[in-house]
């Protein structure tokens, strides 16, 4: 099975929930909610008031978070992740967070499977998914290097590599390639190196006199487009585009320019799309 497939469990009953209680975050519930919410919205963690009347991890809290994820600065996510283009296909999600992307795929008729490791917020993921009747499986692995699937199991892999522990790694990309069917598609989100913070530092050395460098919204290592092209050399139909930029991250003179234009120059996130060759490469 190419090293992919040991120590796994499908969550088909709630009796397994207690087994993973120790993997939940140890911070207070409010802090946990803040951290998870900012990751869903791809925002730096900053003190900010919660919406009035929302209780962390209530149904209303989950609903509002799902709605906000795909609005304003996240407008590009539905198109980038192609929610409406994979009906009936089997989709593996890595780094799925609270599972909102899996929910969107399921609504459009796809068959999503969420892979999780011990560092993921498993109980919160289960809590969110349990509010729906969609068929969304969760696959657990105690070892992030071994996943419970045979080769060529999925039509699409949607990989959120913006945060630890799901950052891009060569061994993970090799495993993903084995999991994809020939002609299958990989959609990956990863931090961009030459982002707005980089240009802040390069072009505005005196920024401390009039502002501050924008905080990073992600925790995974950043990549250049050249590095990504090299990393994905075994795939075909490779496309790399920039997305995700908040106007508040820009110096005031730059805010007069169209945000859509600046996003393509200094966006925070690379959207990488690639296809597994139908005929395997010789190497």
Explain what the structure shows.
- With 283 residues, the chain is of the alpha/beta class.
- It has a single domain (24-275), classed as Vaccinia Virus protein VP39 (Rossmann fold, 3-Layer(aba) Sandwich).
- Helix content is 27%, strand content 19%.
- It has nine helices and eight strands.
- The protein has helices at 29-40, 59-69, 77-81, 100-107, 122-129, 170-179, 196-203, 225-231, 259-266; strands at 8-10, 90-94, 111-116, 137-141, 154-160, 180-191, 236-243, 269-275.
- It has an eight-stranded mixed β-sheet, sandwiched between helices.
- Strand 3, helix 5 (122-129) and strand 4 form a beta-alpha-beta unit.
- It starts with 7 loop residues before the first strand and ends in an 8-residue tail after the last strand.
- The model is unreliable at 1-27 (pLDDT under 50).
Element layout with pairings:
Blueprint: E1 8-10, H1 29-40, H2 59-69, H3 77-81, E2 90-94, H4 100-107, E3 111-116, H5 122-129, E4 137-141, E5 154-160, H6 170-179, E6 180-191, H7 196-203, H8 225-231, E7 236-243, H9 259-266, E8 269-275
Features:
single chain; 283 residues; alpha/beta; Rossmann fold; eight-stranded mixed beta sheet; 9 helices; 8 strands; globular; disordered N terminus
């Amino acid at each position: 099975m190419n090293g992919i497939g040991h120590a796994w469990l499908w969550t088909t009953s709630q009796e397994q929930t207690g087994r993973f209680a120790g993997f939940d975050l140890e911070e207070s519930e409010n802090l946990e909610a803040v951290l998870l919410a900012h990751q869903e919205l791809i925002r730096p963690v900053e003190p900010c008031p919660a919406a009035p009347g929302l209780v962390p991890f209530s149904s209303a809290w989950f609903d509002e978070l799902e709605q906000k994820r795909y609005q304003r600065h996240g407008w590009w996510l539905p198109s980038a992740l192609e929610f409406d283009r994979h009906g009936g296909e089997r989709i593996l999600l890595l780094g799925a967070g609270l599972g909102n992307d899996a929910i969107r795929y399921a609504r459009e008729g796809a068959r999503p499977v969420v892979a999780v490791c011990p560092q993921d917020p498993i109980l919160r993921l289960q809590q969110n998914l349990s509010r729906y009747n969609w068929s969304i499986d969760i696959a657990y692995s105690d070892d992030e290097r071994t996943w419970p699937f045979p080769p060529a199991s999925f039509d699409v892999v949607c990989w959120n590599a913006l945060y630890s522990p799901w950052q891009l790694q060569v061994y993970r990309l090799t495993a993903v390639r084995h999991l994809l069917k020939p002609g299958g598609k990989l959609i990956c989100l990863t931090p961009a190196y030459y982002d707005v913070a980089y240009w802040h530092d390069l072009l505005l050395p005196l920024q401390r006199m009039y502002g501050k460098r924008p905080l990073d919204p992600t925790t995974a290592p950043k990549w250049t487009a050249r590095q990504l092209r090299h990393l994905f050399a075994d795939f075909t139909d490779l496309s790399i585009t920039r997305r995700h930029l908040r106007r508040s991250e820009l110096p005031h003179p730059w805010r007069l320019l169209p945000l859509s234009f600046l996003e393509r120059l200094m966006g925070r996130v690379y959207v990488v799309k690639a296809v597994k060759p139908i005929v395997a490469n010789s190497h």
